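4.2 Preliminary Data

To establish feasibility before requesting continued support, the project team ran the inverse folding procedure on a target of 297 residues. The structure was first converted into the token representation described in Section 3, and no sequence information of any kind was made available to the design step. The complete token record follows.
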């Protein structure tokens, strides 16, 4: 039982990092950015390329190198997210939502097959593979890399929540989520806030991509597709548009997957996940926190 809970929370922390981007963008411009999962994939490949350029990295320096590459990747993927918003989404901001949605799907395919054309279609072995001792905690086997990666994920999520709640930019994001036209009349630079939102969401997805590559050891150009859909599921469970809901939804989805795989078998994991998505969309489309939280981002 303890092992299942730990496994679920660990995987769920990845889902939560990516779901935050979905929720932030949807909360402000009501866009389901289906290219967001591919930003995660792009982060993994940027980390792969950067670490490969370092040559052979001693095991004692792997954590340090990974943290440096993580920060660099966050900046690059954040910039790419801003570029996608500026080129693909902003010109269609006043268009029907279906047009923007189709554009998001097109951006997703562009990223996937653009990376495939550049890096090749075959899976890549990540240059740094985190390894370390394992500990027995209340009957669960927990490895040192899992602790490090989960600590990074928690710090990023807490940092984002603090940023949203305590800074002027965070207040502007919340104001636009409530009333974008009113915010514009009050003098808030809506375009700047939306740009910053895409930067933060994409940076978090890029960080998750590097962490996944270092932990699982293998990346490919389609790795963002399924996890993007699962992050969307997590955002729906928590209440899409709600920051705390995205975190809660990610962790809850990880736990549901862990217990569902244990009861039904690992081959049913994805089926179980999307059955949960359908159930929430049917029975409670606002998600767990959708009704209780009035300020949305």
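Position-by-position output of the design step:
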């Amino acid at each position: 039982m303890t092992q299942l809970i730990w496994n679920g929370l660990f995987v769920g922390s990845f889902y939560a990092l990516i779901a935050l981007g979905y929720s932030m963008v949807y909360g402000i411009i009501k866009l389901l950015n289906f290219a967001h999962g591919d930003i995660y994939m792009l982060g993994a490949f940027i980390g792969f390329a950067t670490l490969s350029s370092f040559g052979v990295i001693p095991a004692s320096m792997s954590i340090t190198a990974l943290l440096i590459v993580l920060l660099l990747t966050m900046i690059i993927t954040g910039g790419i997210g801003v570029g996608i918003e500026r080129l693909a989404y902003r010109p269609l901001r006043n268009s029907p939502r279906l047009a923007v949605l189709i554009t998001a799907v097109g951006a997703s395919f562009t990223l996937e097959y653009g990376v495939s054309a550049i890096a090749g279609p075959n899976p890549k072995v990540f240059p740094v593979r985190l390894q370390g001792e394992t500990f027995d905690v209340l009957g669960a086997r927990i490895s040192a890399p899992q602790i490090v990666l989960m600590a990074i994920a928690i710090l990023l999520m807490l940092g984002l929540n603090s940023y949203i709640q305590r800074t002027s930019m965070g207040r502007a994001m919340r104001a636009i989520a409530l009333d974008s036209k009113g915010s514009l009349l009050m003098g808030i630079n809506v375009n700047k806030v939306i740009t910053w939102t895409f930067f933060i969401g994409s940076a978090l997805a890029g960080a998750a991509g590097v962490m996944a590559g270092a932990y699982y050891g293998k990346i490919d150009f389609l790795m963002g597709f399924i996890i993007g859909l699962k992050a969307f599921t997590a955002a729906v469970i928590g209440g899409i548009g709600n920051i705390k809901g995205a975190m809660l939804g990610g962790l809850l989805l990880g736990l549901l997957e862990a217990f569902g795989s244990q009861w039904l078998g690992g081959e049913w994991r994805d089926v179980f996940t999307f059955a949960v998505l359908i159930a929430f969309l049917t029975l409670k489309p606002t998600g767990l926190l959708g009704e209780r939280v009035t300020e949305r981002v």
